Amino acid sequence: MIDADALNAFAGRTELLDGVGRAMVLTPHPGEMARLLGKSVKEVEADRINLARRFATEHKLTLVLKGGGH
Q1: Which residues of 37-56 are buried (b: 16+ CB within 10 A; e: fewer)?
Q2: pTM score, two decimals?
């Protein structure tokens, strides 16, 4: 599982997040997700499910985006 400051280490380097052949789980809050994607928190909140799903699919991992959604 990758959480908290470890997620920030991958900002701008998300190609290193590759779940092929291993179980990888990311649990970012919207601010961390925004940094990973190079987007604003507002952009993440506006399209939470699609952005999380796309990221998880592209990187072949499980992603749990924290927060309630609206």
Answers
A1: bebeeeebbeebeebbeebb
A2: 0.85
